[in-house]
Amino acid sequence: MNATGRCLCGNIEYGLSQEPVGLDVCHCKNCQRQAGASFIPFVAVPLSDFSVSGSPKIFMDTDTVSGNGVARHFCGDCGSPIYVVVAGAPNTAYVASGTLDVTEHLHPKCHGWTSTRHAWVSLTDGAPQYEMDPGLQPESV
Ligand SMILES: [Zn+2]
Ligand SMILES: [Zn+2]
Questions:
Q1: Residue 67: left if φ>0, alpha if ψ -120 to 50, beta else—which one?
Q2: Nearest ligand to the C-alpha of residue 82?
Q3: CA 112 – ligand 2 centroid, Å
Q4: What confidence tier does 20 reach under pLDDT thresholds 50, 70, 90?
Q5: What ligand is nearest to the CA atom of residue 75?
Q6: Which tens digit of pLDDT belongs to each residue from 78-115?
Q7: Of 62, 59, 61, 51, nearest to 79 (Cα)?
Q8: If you measure from the C-alpha of residue 7 to the centroid of ligand 1, how many angstroms do you get, rounded to a whole number?
Q9: How many distinct structural domains can be found in the chain?
């Protein structure tokens, strides 16, 4: 394992067999609602490199602007968002980076859905910004 993380209460733990670096920061309204926050930064990793212990609950988020359904995996005990799987990229886990144990090396790779960015959030990191869908990671199956 090169990276580990967990939910707030610790009932869900996970490991990644590769070290994530770049963040896909999602400013969409649905991520804002799920997190109760202004955005969710995600690290995209192949599902096959992602192992979870515990039993996350899954909310099937079908009311999306993109039309892509999103399976939102979260802790049913403490509510932490853990990861999402998007219908258009079924072999990729987008892991909510706030749940990682080590985060110092992370930096934004892109910002998506900035059309619903909260006005007070200034994006000064130089990463590309997309008003809507930033496009999904190419998958190697
Ligand atoms: Zn929990
Ligand atoms: Zn989102």
A1: left
A2: 1
A3: 8
A4: confident
A5: 1
A6: 999 999 999 989 999 999 999 999 999 999 999 999 99
A7: 59
A8: 4
A9: 1
What is the β-pairing status of strands 22-26 and 107-112?
parallel
Residue 132 lies in a domain: no
How far away, in angstroms, is 53 Cα from ligand 2 center? 24
**pLDDT reported for residue 114:** 95
Cα 63 to ligand 1 centroid, rounded to whole Å: 25
Structure tokens at 8: 């707030």
pLDDT digits (tens, 9 = 90+) for 114-132: 999 999 999 999 999 999 9
Cα-to-chain-centroid distance, residue 122: 20
17 is a domain residue: yes
**CATH number of the domain that residue 107 is part of:** 2.170.150.70
Where is pLDDT greater, at 5 or 141? 5
Per-residue pLDDT at 141: 41
CA of 36 to the centre of ligand 2 (A): 12
| Residue 136 included in any domain | no
Q: Which two tokens stand for residue 18?
A: 């590769």
